[in-house]
Design brief:
CATH class of the largest domain in chain A: Alpha Beta
Structural class of chain A: alpha/beta
CATH topology of the largest domain in chain B: Rossmann fold
Largest sheet of chain A: 7 strands, mixed
CATH class of the largest domain in chain B: Alpha Beta
Order of helices and strands of chain B: EHEHHEHHEEEHEHHEEEEEEEEEEE
Number of strands of chain B: 18
Oligomer: heterodimer
Strand content of chain B: 25-35%
CATH topology of the largest domain in chain A: Aspartate Aminotransferase, domain 2
Radius of gyration of chain B: 22 Å
Distance between the termini of chain A: 28 Å
Number of domains of chain B: 3
């Protein structure tokens, strides 16, 4: 059964599973002084070093969290202070819901945030915290984060980069970006859900924790850590470095070609995009009907923004790109690390059939 | 065969899904998100989905069938809620369930089912579909107490062709709950839903007022010969036949008064004694579920919980009119449904009579 919804979550990598299961056997609390505590601490710190190294941060600047959402919320909470908040129009809800009152940087029709607009916003010299994702979860469009960092630094602003979807699918290096912080998530890498990290630059102005608790994570995130999850997270980060992204991109392109031949429009084309993601709008056909039809074909895809009720909401990302009605007619196809040619063949075979059936004039204005 | 079941999260539609699944069909549960439950309940920050969607998903999980939530909020707001408010503002008494069945459920959802390759759309309505020599017929449910045929008169014959109503033959609600129990469904003893779904508080005038504040503006209560006998607080609060809310105008010349008409143009409520009823009912938006002659005798039902009344239905020059055996106070906006014994022959929406002289 083709699973093409990696940007929602993807299968646990065997290496991550092995590391997770092994670490589950360890009893200690890393804060404890005894031998068991030391054993747990060693796993935790090994994991921290591995992840920090992979994404360009110093181990002491990595704050483990429960996931990408918490990492984003922590970055905003800890660095907003008295700064004005500026976010791009296509940020994930993890950022949006923590960003009440923020100013917004628009995106172009290709889904790329407008750097001239950011520069102009920062031109007034007001101290600011800027949030820009490295790659968009719905379209896969890669954002000019490095350019944003240099603009921010020129104006004395702080830049937080949500790299939850980018990590593992393109080079991600906090130091090279020269941003102030970076959010990543374990399960998007093929690790266990429930773990993530906020990576900080040495000069990140980290204020106070969201949860102080017992002062864990150098006072930046309280609570007894789930050591085994972090072990799995680290193993996934390492294993993911071996992925053949060119192979994934080739399969993604094949899926895209089949859909386009059947009338689909690729949202975010021709911008640079993640190799595993494509966002396909089928003019005139509701996104939720498409997702259901594919599910009945036993192919898992998604529409941009599913609410926890399962209802598909109109995508704020595609709306921000000015796609009009297409914003309600696009599905996201995102290839997991273990995607096969057979998966893509099945999708390419099903797409025209699903499109034809849903396009029959009676079905298109469904519900 | 592949069947889409409209699952509300209540016990009836849950049992429909269960029975069809048990019978070996490929059942696809679909729950329509019709409005924001968080906003409707007035609880700040409450989830938009509400408990019913959760219940429907749990039933689908228990049965092991696919289940999807479809966002129909925009369509429902326009086709049902706004129409509901407009109708009150226009001096009528709407039946939003009929509108919803006509537009969202048997219109859009039926089309979606077709687009998904389903042969049938099944619902938990208490009505019977009986396949007669000239195609499917709509009949009252075996359980007269639960019969919902009045609400389904506007279903077209083409829609009926694709419908399944597995509960139509159930003896009573207890029998349905027993099936839910047997299938291990958590909703087996869930209370029946009450009132209008998008007005959980029961305060329908609040909804009307939000959309059409003019429906709640004060005006005069007059007798049918035009004498002003009282004041009211919005024609949206009045229904033809109603005896309440008339204040000091409730009794005129020693006679108990009822609303006999509304005049939205002048924001007036017209009252009269009960015997001021009418025998002639003009209809609009008539739907036929049988071949009917120009004039025929049958029984009609003027409200959801009304008695069956003997009547003659006449169709001439495209106009359909009902002549009642005894006078009644039909409320414009309600449905007048024609029955021949248990079979629904058709029906229409009760139209406002030609403006009365005043």
């Amino acid at each position: 059964m083709p699973y093409l919804d990696a940007n929602a979550t993807q299968a646990l990598r065997p290496a991550a599973r092995a590391a997770l299961v092994t670490a589950l056997e360890v009893t200690g609390n890393p804060s404890s002084v005894h031998q068991a505590g030391r054993a747990a601490r060693r796993i935790m710190e090994d994991s921290r070093e591995v992840i920090a190294r992979r994404f360009g941060a110093r181990p002491e600047d990595l704050v483990f969290t429960s996931g990408g959402t918490e990492a984003d919320a922590l970055a905003i909470h800890a660095m907003r202070a008295h700064r004005r908040l500026i976010i791009s129009a296509i940020e994930h809800d993890a950022v949006r819901s923590a960003a009440a009152g923020a100013a917004v940087v628009p995106v172009g029709a290709d889904g790329v945030a407008d750097m001239a607009a950011l520069d102009a916003l920062l031109g007034d010299g007001v101290p600011s915290l800027v949030c820009l994702m490295l790659a968009n979860n719905e379209t896969g469009v890669i954002q000019p984060a490095q350019q944003a960092a240099s603009i921010c630094r020129r104006h004395g602003a702080i830049l937080h980069v949500d790299a939850v979807q980018a990590a593992g699918r393109m080079p991600v290096d906090l130091a090279a970006l020269a941003a102030h912080s970076l959010a990543i998530s374990s399960h998007k890498l093929g690790g266990p859900a429930g773990a993530g990290a906020l990576l900080l630059a040495p000069d990140a102005p980290f204020g106070t924790a969201l949860i102080a608790g017992g002062g864990q994570e150098r006072g930046r995130r309280g609570g007894t850590p789930p050591v085994a999850l972090f072990a799995g997270f680290a193993a996934a980060a390492v294993a993911g470095a071996e992925d053949d992204l060119a192979r994934v991109a080739g399969l993604r392109d094949a899926a895209e070609r089949a859909a386009v031949a059947a009338g689909a429009v690729v949202c975010g084309d021709p911008a640079r995009r993640l190799p595993n993601t494509t966002c396909l709008a089928l003019p005139g056909v509701r996104a939720d009907a498409q997702v259901i039809a594919f599910d009945l074909e036993k192919i898992a895809v998604s529409a941009g923004a599913a609410c926890s009720s399962g209802k598909v909401a109109t995508s704020h990302v595609l709306q921000a790109m000015g796609l009009g009605p297409l914003a309600e007619q696009a599905i996201r196809v995102s290839l997991p690390w273990h995607v096969t040619q057979a998966d893509i063949d099945a999708f390419a075979e099903a797409y025209p059939r699903v499109a034809a059936r849903l396009r029959s004039p009676l079905a298109t204005r469904a519900a | 065969m592949r069947v889409v079941v409209a699952m509300s999260g209540g016990v009836d539609s849950s049992v429909v899904a269960g029975l069809l699944h048990e019978a070996g069909h490929e059942v696809i549960g679909v729950t329509l998100q019709l409005y924001d439950h968080g906003a409707a309940s007035g609880r700040k920050g409450a989830c938009c989905a509400g408990q019913d969607i959760h219940d429907a998903r749990r039933v689908a999980d228990t049965l092991g069938i696919a289940h999807y939530v479809i966002d129909a909020e925009e369509r429902f707001a326009k086709a049902v809620i706004a129409d509901f408010a407009d109708s009150y503002a226009g001096g009528e008494t709407p039946v939003p369930c009929i509108r919803c069945n006509q537009t969202v459920k048997f219109g859009d959802l039926s089309e979606l089912a077709r687009g998904l390759g389903a042969e049938r759309l099944a619902t938990g309505h208490y009505v019977r579909r009986i396949d007669g020599p000239a195609g499917p017929e709509l009949h009252r449910a075996a359980d007269a107490q639960r019969d919902q045929s009045w609400f389904l008169f506007a279903t077209t014959r083409a829609q009926l062709e694709r419908c399944l109503f597995p509960l139509g033959g159930m003896a009573d609600k207890r029998a349905v709950r027993d099936v839910a129990q047997r299938l291990g469904l958590g909703v087996a003893e869930k209370p029946d839903s009450q009132d209008i779904c998008f007005v959980p508080s029961g305060d329908y005038t609040g909804v009307v007022g939000r959309f059409r504040p003019d429906a709640l503006e004060p005006g005069e209560i007059v007798t049918s010969d035009g004498r002003v006998v009282g004041l009211h607080d919005g024609i949206g609060r009045y229904t033809v036949g109603q005896g309440k809310r008339l204040g000091d105008a409730a009794v005129v010349a020693g006679q108990r008064q009822y609303v006999v008409a509304t005049d939205p143009g002048r924001r007036r409520v017209v009252i009269g004694p009960r015997d001021a009823g009418t025998r002639t009912i003009p209809l609009r938006d008539v739907n036929w579920l049988a071949e009917a002659g120009e004039s025929f005798r049958c029984t009609v039902k003027l409200r959801a919980h009304d008695q069956l009344r003997p009547a003659t239905v006449c169709t001439a020059q495209g106009e359909t009119t009902v002549e009642l055996g005894e006078p009644a106070l039909p409320a414009p906006g309600q449905a007048c449904v024609f029955y021949l014994e248990d079979r629904v022959l058709g029906g229409g929406i009760i139209a406002r009579p030609e403006p009365a002289s005043t």
